[in-house]
Amino acid sequence: MAALLEAKALTAGYGQTAVLHGIDFAVEERGVSALLGANGAGKTTTLRAVSGMVRTGGELRLAGERINGLATEEIVRRGVAHVPDGRGTFMELTVEENMRLGAYVRRDRAEVEGDFERMFGYFPRLRERFKQQAGTLSGGEQQMLAITRALLLRPRLLLLDEPSFGLAPLVVQEIFAIMRRVREEQSVGILLVEQNASLALDFADRAYLLETGRIVVSGPAAEIGQDESVRRSYLGY
Amino acid sequence: MDGLAHQITAGVATGGIYASVALALVMIYQATHHVNFAQGEMATFSTYIALTFIQAGLPYWVAFVATVIVSFAIGVAIERLLMRPVQHAPVLTHVGVFIGLLLIVGNATGWVFGYTTEVFPSPFESEGLLLGGLVSGHELGSTAVTLAVLLLVYLFFRHTTLGLAMRAAAYNPASSRLVGIRVGWMLALGWGLAAAVGAVAGMMVAPVVFLDPNMMLGILLYAFAGALLGGIDNPMGAVVGGFAVGVLENLAGAYVVGTELKLTVALAIIIGVLVVKPSGLFGRVVLSRV
User: Fold this and answer.
1) Which domain range does residue B233 map to?
2) Can you tell me the mean pLDDT for B61-90?
3) What is the ipTM of this complex?
4) Does A84 sit within 8 Å of B175, measured CB to CB?
5) Cross-chain Cβ contact A76/B180 below 8 Å
6) How many CB atoms lie within 10 A of CB B5?
7) Where in chain A is the domain with CATH 3.40.50.300?
């Protein structure tokens, strides 16, 4: 069976500058793959390449269908939700409007209402803030809103760019606990970028270590987490 | 006292026209961050289309609706054919395209429909003076139509999914793509809506000022003054500003500067706002670190 997402010799860059020099990775159906590496290694660019926000070369397949070269909005319509670097929240709009936009491409209106309730189950604070302008939320609440917005697409593949960034440890724990529930309750594959390597390795089943646009180590997350030399040289803990 | 009351109500009536055109300007501005100089000429062109329909024997309101639909299509076509290819070009390119559009649409109007001044019918003419002689039937009717249009636009943007998507696309195009919004089409729809709103303004003002290819030139200036006064990035502000400029212009014309210098009021407001409060009364002050 083909993987949910499969990248082969993927290259990407900005203008003349190449950032990814041909990387191979995969996300299985219902699986979690983590991309680890230092700042500037190309983690965020990899996510941007998957959702068509940067020019790509090589091959990207979503459930067997080639998706590179497609416009971002068309990739999203094939079931790829992206929580980008900086969260991508519509600050001027209300929480409710942000959530409605998350479900924008869906036609099953009745089920969207049900999903709203499910999201309030995950993040009760969003119900309290429902009519509030998104720009007034705290950092943690904004991250919850960003994940909610992405989940409301009912994605097959969820791209998460540093969900722990700038948040208090307790909030990070809460968010990862919810992500575990999401994995149990719905069929979604996740490609996770995370600075916090131990957190990511704990959550993922596969991990890829990026260094200046190349994958230097890959394998099951548990093995990488236990490999002393990899931990010391690349993960710094 | 009656004179003053009449000047104010007449000001509200013309203010409604300015408010509509100001709203059209703001809709394009929010999406592109530029002022469409050709908004007025496009409205004039639409009004000539309406006149053609009416002269062909269509009932007024049928011609009205047909004109709105045709204008919407023209607006969409302009975005797709002219603005789309230069969407990533620098500011000066956009300004150049807007000025080119202003000249081309303006002259095409004269070329196709002629330069003679035409009488444009009002559907409210027969009513005579109303509210104790304070307003003419046309003033009251056109204000009602304008308010209805503004209300419809408001409801569309506030309470429909498409309206929400258009606002999202204007605020944050990158995030909009990430929720699957086809941002390019939202811009085209915005142009269509602006052209349609402008067309209604043209049809409502033409019976008062008579129809000629330069009809909207002065009106665009007042509308721009109104948009700036209310805040060029705030649709509600632009509407309020439009009405305020209408009343101010009428009062200044009647009691201060005289009718010949009325247009100066618009220019004075533009300069005054830009010097004293560039963000306008209701606009958002944007700060950026350097």
Assistant:
1) 2-276
2) 93
3) 0.91
4) yes
5) yes
6) 14
7) 5-79+155-235
Average pLDDT in the B104-131 region? Answer: 85
Distance between CA atoms of B149 and A73, rounded to whole angstroms?
31
Picking from B171, B178, B180, the nearest residue to A84 by CB comes out as B178
Q: Which of residues 182-221 of B touch A (CB under 8 A)?
A: 182-183
Least confident span in A68-82, A219-233, B5-19, B134-148: A219-233
Q: If you ran DSSP here, which 8-state letter would residue B37 be given?
A: T
Sheet holding A55-62, edge to edge: A17-27, A5-14, A55-62, A65-66
d(CA B264, CA B252): 10
Within a domain: B25: yes
- For chain A, list residues with pLDDT below 50: none
For residue B97, the one-letter residue type is V
Which residues in chain B have their CB less than 8 angstroms from residue A100's CB? 161, 164
Which CATH number belongs to the domain containing residue B22 in this structure?
1.10.3470
Q: How many domains does chain B have?
A: 1
- In 3-state terms, what secondary structure has residue A148? helix
Structural domain includes residue B149? yes
Q: Which CATH architecture has domain A5-79+155-235?
A: 3-Layer(aba) Sandwich (3.40)
Chain B CB contacts of A51 below 8 Å: 178
